[in-house]
Design brief:
The structure holds two protein chains of two kinds. Chain A contains 14 helices and eleven strands. Chain A is an alpha/beta fold. A nine-stranded mixed β-sheet of chain A has the order 3-2-4-7-1-8-11-10-9. Chain B is mainly β. Chain B has one domain. Chain B has one helix and eight strands, in the order H-E-E-E-E-E-E-E-E. In chain B, the strands form two sheets. In chain B, strands 6-5-4-7-8 form a five-stranded antiparallel β-sheet, with no helix packed on it. In chain B, strands 2-1-3 form a three-stranded antiparallel β-sheet, with helices on one face. The radius of gyration of chain B is 21 Å and the shape is extended. Chain B starts with 24 loop residues before the first helix and ends with a strand. Classes of the chains: A alpha/beta, B mainly beta. At the A-B interface, helix 5, helix 6 and strand 5 of A face strand 4, strand 5 and strand 6 of B. Chain A: It comes from Desulfatibacillum alkenivorans DSM 16219.
C-alpha cells in the first residue's frame, strides 16, 4: 500500500470553440501522447490503470469511453469511466493507488461541446417524471441559484461581473484559454442576457478540449519526476437532486467535501494554509458561492474579496489564476483542468500565470446542475 | 513540390430520437392521477422529519424512512416564489409558451420543499421573490407536469 500519491505529469490541449480537425479519440491521443512523452513513461509497461471522464450524449454513444480505449490503453488492461466531472478521475485515481491495487494511473477527460447542443444535452440531466418536460438546462437552473444567492446576501449583477473581469483578465496570461481580455463592468453587464441575472459572459462558453494526467505511488513518482505534486486531501459529497429540496443560496455538499479534504490534509485555516485555489466557475456567481463552501469567507462575503483584489493573481489568495472555466474549458473536463492548473502552479510550470512561491493549492470540481456533486482535492509540493 | 490534396474535416450528420414511457413510480402514479383527474397537487409527509416533500417519493432522503401512500397529503395549490429567471434564448426542449420563458422555484403552501415550474399570465418584469402564485391547469390533462400550464399571480 502506498502512503502518498503524486501527480507526475500533466498535458492539456488548447481550448477552442471547435476542433474540426480532431475527433474525440484524436483529441484524447494528443494529450495522452504528450503526457507520456513528458514523463518518459510507456503506456504498456508503466501505466497499470486508466480512468477517463466523458459524456455519452456529447460523444454520441453510450459507455462513451469505448470510443477512446485504443488511445488510452484500455484494450491492454482495466479502464474505467467516470460519467462525471474530471475532478472525480483524480479522486478515484488517487484512491486506487492508496489502496495498493495500482502504482501508476493515467487520467483523462475529454469533450467536444461543438458536436451538439449544450442545452439539449444538459436537459437530459433532469429526471423525466417531474422536470425534463419543463425544458430546464444548466444555465436556466444556474440562474435560479444565482438569483436566490443574490437575494440571500443583497448581491448585485456587478458582483458577478467582477468575477468575469478578473478571470478573463487572468486568462490573458494563459495560452490555452479560449476567452480572455480586459473587460469593463459595462462589457459584462451589457452582454446578451441568457437567463437573468446571467449574461453570455457570466456563463462558460462552449469549447472542445482534453486534459490528461498521470498519478503515481510515492516510490514510482520519485523515479519519474523531481517535481511531484502530492495529493494531500480528498473530499466528495452530493447535495439533494431536486432544486426545490436544496437551499440554493448555500452549498452544503461543497462544505462537506471540503471538510473531508481539509481534515485529510491537515488544513485548519484555508485562507492561511492555501496559496491558491482553482475552482469550477461554470457560471460567474459560482466562484463566490464556492468560496463560501471552501471555507474562504463567510456567506455573502466572496464579492468583497473579489472587489478588493484579495483573490486576484497578485492577491493574498489567488483564485483561478488560469482564468478558470469562464475562460473556456469543456464540460466534464473542467474539474481535471482545475487539478492540472493547480498542479502546474505547484510544479512551478505555470508560465506567465505562475503564482509566486505556491506550495499548497485546492482544486474543486462539480457535476450536475447547480453544483449537486462536489469534489475537492488538496495538493502540495512539499 | 508535390501538391497534396487537403481533405476538409468531414462530419457525419445524425439525429438521435427515442420515444419513451417512464414509470412514474407508486407515489408518482398517485400524484399524476390526482393532478389529471382532480387538479390536486400531492406531496408526501415524512413523519420522522415532520417535513412535507414534493415530489412525493417512497424514501425520505434525510432519515431513510419508508414513506407510503398513507403519507400522501394535498399541498398548495397556492405558493410563493423562492427564485425565478427569465430565459431569453429558445430551444426545442422548451414548452410552447411566449418568450421570455420564466422558470421559478415555488414553495407550495403546506410543503417544505419547492416545485420548479413556469410562471405566466404576468408581465415578466413584475415577478419578484416572495410573490404569491397559483397554478393554471390545462383543460385536457394527460398526466404530466405540463398539466399545469404555469403558475400565475394570485
Amino acid at each position: 500500500m502506498s502512503d502518498r500519491v503524486a501527480i507526475v505529469g500533466v498535458a492539456q490541449t488548447r481550448f477552442s470553440p471547435k476542433r474540426a480537425d480532431a475527433n474525440v479519440a484524436e483529441l484524447a491521443y494528443e494529450v495522452i501522447e504528450k503526457v507520456l512523452n513528458d514523463t518518459g513513461l510507456s503506456i504498456e509497461k508503466d501505466i497499470d490503470n486508466t480512468i477517463s471522464c466523458s459524456h455519452d450524449i456529447w460523444d454520441g454513444q453510450t459507455i462513451s469511453n469505448i470510443g477512446i480505449t485504443d488511445v488510452a490503453g484500455g484494450h491492454l488492461r482495466t479502464e474505467e469511466k467516470m460519467a462525471m466531472d474530471g475532478s472525480t478521475a483524480a479522486y478515484y485515481g488517487a484512491v486506487g493507488i492508496l489502496s495498493g491495487e495500482y502504482e501508476c494511473t493515467l487520467l483523462l477527460a475529454h469533450t467536444k461541446m461543438s458536436q451538439t447542443n449544450r442545452h439539449i444535452v444538459n436537459n437530459d440531466a433532469f429526471e423525466p417524471i417531474y422536470s425534463r418536460q419543463l425544458g430546464l438546462d444548466f444555465t436556466s437552473a444556474g440562474a435560479l441559484q444565482a438569483r436566490r444567492f443574490m437575494h440571500a446576501h443583497g448581491l448585485s449583477r456587478e458582483d458577478f461581473a467582477r468575477v468575469v473581469m478578473k478571470n478573463l483578465g487572468n486568462a490573458m496570461a494563459n495560452p490555452l484559454a479560449c476567452r480572455f481580455g480586459y473587460y469593463g463592468l459595462d462589457d459584462v453587464l451589457s452582454a446578451p442576457m441568457e437567463a437573468d441575472p446571467l449574461t453570455a459572459m457570466d456563463a462558460a462558453p462552449d469549447v472542445d478540449g482534453a486534459v490528461a494526467m498521470i498519478v503515481a505511488s510515492e516510490s514510482k513518482a520519485k523515479k519519474i519526476t523531481d517535481t511531484p505534486v502530492w495529493i494531500q486531501g480528498l473530499g466528495s459529497c452530493y447535495d439533494d437532486y431536486f432544486l426545490g429540496d436544496r437551499d440554493l443560496a448555500e452549498c452544503m455538499a461543497l462544505e462537506k467535501a471540503a471538510a473531508q479534504a481539509y481534515k485529510m490534509a491537515g488544513i485548519s485555516n484555508p485562507v492561511k494554509d492555501l496559496d491558491l485555489i482553482e475552482l469550477s466557475d461554470e457560471f460567474s456567481y459560482q466562484e463566490l458561492l464556492w468560496l463560501e463552501g471552501l471555507g474562504v469567507c463567510k456567506p455573502g462575503e466572496g464579492a468583497r474579496l473579489t472587489e478588493s483584489g484579495f483573490t486576484s493573481r497578485e492577491g493574498e489568495l489567488p483564485v483561478n489564476p488560469s482564468g478558470g472555466v469562464l475562460s473556456g474549458v469543456p464540460a466534464n473536463v473542467m474539474g481535471l483542468n482545475r487539478v492540472a492548473e493547480a498542479a502546474l502552479q505547484l510544479m512551478g510550470k505555470a508560465g506567465e500565470r505562475q503564482v509566486k512561491d505556491a506550495k499548497r493549492a485546492v482544486a474543486q470540481g462539480h457535476t450536475g446542475f447547480c453544483g449537486q456533486h462536489q469534489c475537492v482535492i488538496v495538493l502540495g509540493n512539499q | 513540390m508535390e501538391n497534396k490534396f487537403v481533405q476538409a474535416p468531414f462530419e457525419v450528420d445524425q439525429h438521435i430520437t427515442a420515444h419513451s414511457n417512464y414509470f412514474a413510480g407508486k407515489m408518482g402514479s398517485k400524484f399524476y392521477v390526482a393532478l389529471r383527474d382532480s387538479k390536486e397537487i400531492l406531496g408526501v409527509r415524512c413523519k420522522t422529519c415532520s417535513k412535507v416533500l414534493w415530489p412525493p417519493r417512497e424514501t425520505c432522503g434525510r432519515c431513510f424512512s419508508l414513506l407510503t401512500e398513507d403519507d400522501l397529503v394535498k399541498i398548495g395549490p397556492g405558493g410563493s416564489v423562492v427564485s425565478f429567471t427569465r430565459v431569453h434564448y429558445s430551444e426545442p426542449i422548451h414548452p410552447d409558451v411566449d418568450a421570455p420563458l420564466v422558470y421559478a422555484v415555488i414553495q407550495l403552501d403546506g410543503a417544505d420543499s419547492g416545485m420548479t415550474h413556469l410562471i405566466g399570465g404576468v408581465d415578466p418584469e413584475q415577478i419578484e421573490i416572495g410573490m404569491r402564485v397559483t397554478p393554471v391547469f390545462i383543460e385536457n390533462r394527460n398526466g404530466n407536469i405540463l398539466d399545469i400550464v404555469y403558475f400565475k399571480p394570485e
